[in-house]
Amino acid sequence: MWVLIKNISSLLTVIIIIIKLNNRNFFLKGNIMKIIGFEIKHCNAGWRDFSFLKINTDEDISGISEYNECYGSPGLSIIISRFMSKIINQDPICHEKIHQYLYASSRQAPGGIAQQAIAAIENALLDIKGKYLKVPVHTLLGGAIRDKLPLYWSHCGTYRISEELSKIMQKPQVRSLADLKQLGKDVKDAGYKGLKTNIFTFGETPVLEMQGFAGKSGWPELNVDSNIIDGLRKQIDALRSGAGDNMNIHLDLNFNFKTEGYLQITRALDDLNLTWFEIDLYHPEGLRRIRDSINTPIASCESLFGIREFRPFFENASMDVAIIDIPWNGIWLGMKIATMAEAYETNVAPHNFYGNLSTLMSAHFCAAVPNFRVMEIDPDDVPWKDDILTWKPEIINGDLIVPNKPGWGAELNEEIFKMHPPKFIDAKT
């Protein structure tokens, strides 16, 4: 451990941590901090709600985390509440012990919503631990390796396709390829070096193609329409024309096709010099087939939970970049997954399409993980997004500046929750 200490400041930090842990009889029963309660808060974010957990202790130190209930996780707040009832009076510093206990209590239904609940709790506990020790969370993870993080503008045009969402965001709607070209220029002018887009088609009205999700056109067959391939080529060309040849463009294909369809699209667009195709596929061998058939890198795994679900994708060399969702897995487990990825010479990137607290948590992860690739961020969102936290992203020339305050380095702005009550989730949960 000592070989990583490069200066007197870091040495003093380690000494302070050791003293504090010894003073509180960390490994003994006795004078310990206790969890005494929790709060669940929801804030409307236009077409979704942002959700937060706040854990309170008897030493007046609280920890916060962000989780997501609006997309595929109904009832998550209830699960969090039930898990929290199991750990009242426990020591929040011992987050690994709490994680293992909660995991064992959900052993017959591991992963999924249960893991998201555990992650929300553990992430808040890491915030408490960092505040108690007066160090950033990334110090708890081994220390920040980098002080700035390259970003890509995610969902570029995705939300602006909708007239309703454009009005909510107070952004110009994307109605045509010309609008996409202008948006590409805007991304470049804002200093970003990368962007990610989804599948659009332009007819009488622009359409976001999401056939992989229930009720959408093309579901459940998930077959490829030839018009989609032609439209994607024009879409990428428009963004490239506006953003310039040096812009890193990622194409997110989501859960929209089966292996056959992904093969059709990726082979047809392999000449576009994309940074990666992002593919959601639960079959590691099928994903490996796709990767072996093209030159463009593959990013995947954002919907997986824990080292057991990630392992077969690493073993099959299924992707070039492993995407890890920190609100879903938790930052501590995320580091374990990243360590396994390192053993397979694979870089990692966070899945981050939530609010600013998720961005902050992901930033601590990206700062500390050695095999980091690039960080996702959603600039397009509701105008009050930056007011929910006492912190907002500091972005310089397309890079996020790594925070250095204790814990995550932010608190919730309680007034915003009163001004923008939840629209989709019962505030009482």
Structure description:
This protein is an alpha/beta fold. It folds into three domains: 1-31, no CATH class; 32-140, 2-Layer Sandwich (Enolase-like, domain 1); 148-412, TIM Barrel (Alpha-Beta Barrel), CATH 3.20.20. Helices cover 39% and strands 16% of the residues. It has a six-stranded parallel beta sheet with strand order 5-8-9-10-11-12. Strands 13-4-15-14 form a four-stranded mixed beta sheet, covered by helices on one side. α9 links the parallel β8 and β9 (276-278). The longest helix has 22 residues, at 112-133. It starts with 7 loop residues before the first helix and ends in a 10-residue tail after the last helix.
What are its keywords?
429 residues, alpha/beta, 3 domains, four-stranded mixed β-sheet, 15 strands
Indicate the mean pLDDT.
Answer: 93
Write down the CATH class of the largest domain: Alpha Beta
Shape descriptor: globular
> Sheet with the most strands?
6 strands, parallel
Q: Enumerate the strands of the largest sheet in spatial order, edge to edge or round the barrel.
A: 5-8-9-10-11-12
Q: What is the fourth-level CATH superfamily of the largest domain?
A: Enolase-like C-terminal domain
Instruction: Enumerate how many helices there are, as a single number.
Output: 15
Q: Could you list the spans in which at least 5 consecutive residues all have pLDDT below 50?
A: 1-6, 25-29
Q: How helical, in percent, are the residues?
A: 25-40%
Which radius of gyration do the C-alpha atoms yield? 22 Å
What is the fold-level CATH name, i.e. the topology of the largest domain? Answer: TIM Barrel
List the domain count as a whole number. Answer: 3
Distance between the termini: 43 Å
The SSE string, one letter per element, is HEEEHHHHEHHEEEHEHEHEHEHHEHEEEH
Beta-strand portion reads: 15-25%
Class computed from helices, strands and strand pairing: alpha/beta
CATH architecture of the largest domain, please?
Answer: Alpha-Beta Barrel
* Annotation, overall tally of beta strands: 15
Oligomer: single chain
